[in-house]
Structure formats: C-alpha cells, structure tokens
Amino acid sequence: MRKNNILSKAVFRLVFISLFLMISSSAAFAHKVNIFAYVEGDTVFCEGYFPDGRKVEGGKVEVYDSNKKKLTEGTTDKEGLFSFKYSKVEDLDIVIIASMGHKNRYALPAEDFSDDDTTEEAVTQADSEKLSEQKTVKTGKKHKAPEEPSQMPGILGGLGFIFGLTALIMQMSAKKKG
Amino acid sequence: MRRIKRSSLVVGIMVALCCWGVSVQAHFGVITPSDDIVTQKDKKTISLAVKFIHPMEGHYMEMEKPKQFGVVAAGKKKDLLSTLKSEKMHDFTTWEAKYKIKRPGDYTFYVEPAPYWEPAEDLFIIHYTKVCVAALGLEAGWDTPVGLETEIVPMTRPYGFWTGNIFTGQVLVKGKAVPFAEVEVEYLNESPENPKTVKAPSDPYVTQVVKADKNGVFSYAMPRAGWWGFAALSEASWTMKKDGEDKSIEIGAVYWVRARDMK
Q1: Which of B189, B63, B180 lies closest to B129 in space, CA to CA?
Q2: Which of B38, B106, B136 to mutate to test the interface with A (most CBs of A within 10 A)?
Q3: Among B47, B82, B109, B101, residue whose Cα is nearest residue A126
Q4: Are B115 and B103 in contact (CB under 8 A)?
Q5: What is the rounded CA–CA span in Å between residue A14 and residue A22?
Q6: 10 Å Cβ neighbour count for B11?
C-alpha cells in the first residue's frame, strides 16, 4: 500500500514537472512580442501580436516623436489593437510593453502617412535597378537579431520556476517522510 | 510511367551528348524574392524574379508570360499577374514583379507558367513554383496550401534556415499526398550569398534526388548557403497537342528556400 502511494506520488510529480516544462518552454517563445502600425485617414492603428498569431491583450503602448517626447499612450484591447488620432505627420517610435517587461518597438516613418501609392512607384523604379545589381553582387544581406533580448528572461524565468517547484516538492516529500 | 519517362530522358541525354556534347540538367521553375525575411528595418517593397532555368548550371530557358502569378497571405489569394514585367537575362525572357508588404505575416508567392515544350523529352513541362516571404515577425501562414494542381507544402518553416538544416515538405497533386514522389534538388549557383560558383564533378552532383515516403513527405539537408530548389515531378492527368499529336505533360511542384551560414 505504502509502496503504491510512493509510486503514484512520483508519477504525479513527474507529470507535474513535465507539464510546467512544456508550458514554460512554449511561453518563452511566445513572449517575443511584436508591434505593427499603419495609418488610415487621420488615425494610426497599432497591433500587438506574438509570432504564432495570438494577440497581445492589455499591452501598454507608448508613442514617441523623434525627439523622444511622449505624444500619447494607451492599452491594447482583446484584439491586440490600440489606435490614436495623429495631429502631425512625423516619424513615430511606437513601443509596446507586455507583461513581465517584454517589449518591442515599431518605427512608423512619416512617408507611411500618405495614402497614395506614388511613393511606392518611385521606390519600385529604384528597386528595379537594385535587382539587376543583385545578381552580380556576391555579398548576402545580413539579418540582424532582434534588439530586444526579450526571449531570455522568459526562458530563465521558466527554468527558475521549474527548479523552485522541484525544490519545494522535494522538501515537502522529505518532511512527510521525516 | 516515370520509368518510361526516365528511359526517354536517357535517350535524350545520349542524343544530346552525341550531337552537341552537352549534358542534360533538370529544369526548374524559379521564384526568388530580393528579401525572404522582411524586418522592420528592411524595405517593404520587395522584387520577385520569376524564371525557368537549370539552377546549378546557370542555363536559362525562354519563359512565356505565366498563366498565373499571385500571393497567398492571411488565407487570402491575390492575383498579381498584371504586375509581372518581362526582362532579358542571357538572351532569354524572364519575369519580374514588385510587391509592397503592407502587413505582418507570411506571404506565399506562386506562379503557374505557360506549358513549356521540351523536344528532348518529348513532353510539356509545367512547374508550379512557390516561395515564402516572412514579414514583421508574424510567423503564420507558411503551411497553407495555395490549391495548385501540384504543390509542395512545407513541413519545416520555410525561412530562417541555417546551412546544414533539413527542409521537409509534402508533395501534393490535386490536394492529395503523392506516395514515394521523386524530388529533384538543386542549388541556385547565382544565389547572392554564394562566394564562388560551384562546379559539379559529375552529373549526379548537379541534381540531387530524394524520394518521399508513403505520405509524400521528403527531407533534404542543405549543405551550402544560398537558395535551394525542390522539384517534385509527376505526370499530368491530361495531355496537350503538339503538331496534332497528344503529348504528355510533366507537372512539377517546386519550392524555394534559402539557407544562411552561421557566422
């Protein structure tokens, strides 16, 4: 009877620990918050999201101008959305701060405020020349790692949680035995 | 059927070797974007090069205006055929389009070329070709099939590969898995990150061949940084007339992915 009890406890612990491992490891990735912003009419729309497509709910959004002056702030809704009316066309720095200090930013350039696609055409012409160059240029474009090291705290936090939990369980079972 | 095609290919090779002293390589439809991972700091307007070539050997073929060209993003299909502009590369017609990324997410670009008559193989070739561009950190949509006659649906996320990583995909014809499909793999020697043109010591090094399992799933590890093309070849259920005669059609599902060196 006692043997059975010990065995079932051990199994329970194992399941518990692996469950936490699973949760914390998926959360570590998902904690990489992203923000995207675009302009429609007189409004700037901001969207907070995780890489897998889930929305950032209740994320704090702060909007700064190029002089780092805070213009407005707010919170994302259930759809991860936050919007505000702009008074001036300028480069904006939009920061999202989600739970546990995970944050990211989006640079919304002043040219994105114009609705017409004439600028796009201009870019298109320049790009066309670039592409023909691309075939002869042998250096690849480097992709920089994201500047916000937002994944690390999540992973460390998760690991810490597991260790803490394991220690607690071990202590409890030791006490019982004692 | 495949065996018959192989034997005709062998005859073709021999004829080509005798007459012109050139070897036959695999044909590949190509779509390569100027950027496959668009981050905040990157230009949002990308260009897409569409062509029909032998990727490893760098030989070009004439490409007529494609039948279909478009993009699938956020589950929606968008026709982009009118944005294609013809170009001349090595005296052959290729195509190019610009596309402005407006929202985060995965963008799967696809092309269905006009049937290409290949006298050496006595058949038409149609390569349904795809490539995925990831935008602004929302990694969703890359595994959505476009719904082409035949296509490769990636089973590994098709971007962010390191050199040596394995690409796994599933081969579909009319939306159904193709058991034991044959997949040809070639390196695009003109890849921007290729420091030096790779010379194949013999023909088997030009085109790698892997076979899918019973679920149409295949894998291949990419040994060099640059673009890699995967072409799963099947025979079409219909034929086309050439000079009044019915000719078979090779339909290819082609997918392009890019690997980068760890530095």
Answers
A1: B63
A2: B136
A3: B47
A4: no
A5: 12
A6: 13
* Beta-carbon-side half-sphere exposure of residue B117 (alpha carbons within 13 Å): 8
* pLDDT tier at A96, thresholds 50, 70, 90: very high
Tokens of B154: 């990636």
Taking contacts as CB-CB distances below 8 angstroms, the residues of chain B near A128 are 47, 96, 98
Name the nearest CA neighbour of B208 among B189, B178, B228, B192.
B228
What is B153-216 written as a DSSP string?
Answer: EESS-SSSEETTPEEEEEEEETTEE-TT-EEEEEE-TT-TT-SS----SSHHHHSEEEE--TTS
Residue B16 has pLDDT above 60, yes or no: no
Looking at residue B114, its pLDDT comes to 97
Give the residue, A114 or A31, on which the prediction is more confident: A114
Mean pLDDT of A142-164: 51
Mutate to test the interface with A, among B98, B189, B224, B258 (most CBs of A within 10 A): B98
Question: Residue B28 corresponds to which tokens in the numbers above?
Answer: 């590949």
Q: Check pLDDT > 50 for residue B202.
A: yes
Local structure of B14: helix, strand or coil = helix
* Residue B154 near residue B167, CB atoms below 8 Å: yes
Question: What span, in angstroms and rounded, lies between the C-alpha atoms of B48 and A50?
Answer: 28
Contact residues for B258 (Cβ-Cβ < 8 A; gap 6+):
B36, B159, B161, B191, B226, B227, B228
Residues of B in contact with A47 (CB under 8 A): 104
Q: Which of A8-12, B15-19, B96-100, B215-219 has the lowest mean pLDDT?
A: B15-19
pLDDT digits (tens, 9 = 90+) for A34-66: 999 999 999 999 999 999 889 999 999 999 999
CA distances from B259 to B74, B256, B262 (A): 25, 10, 10
Cα–Cα distance between B223 and B71 in angstroms, integer?
Answer: 29
* Mean pLDDT on B218-234: 98
- Find residue B99's DSSP bridge partners: B46
Cβ-based contacts of B39 with chain A (< 8 Å): 143-144
- Contact check, Cβ <8 Å, A144/B41: yes
A79 or A2, greater pLDDT: A79
Tell me the sheet residues that pair with B78: B71
CB atoms within 10 A of CB A139: 8
- Answer yes or no: is pLDDT of A118 > 50: no
> How is residue A78 written in tokens?
């259930």
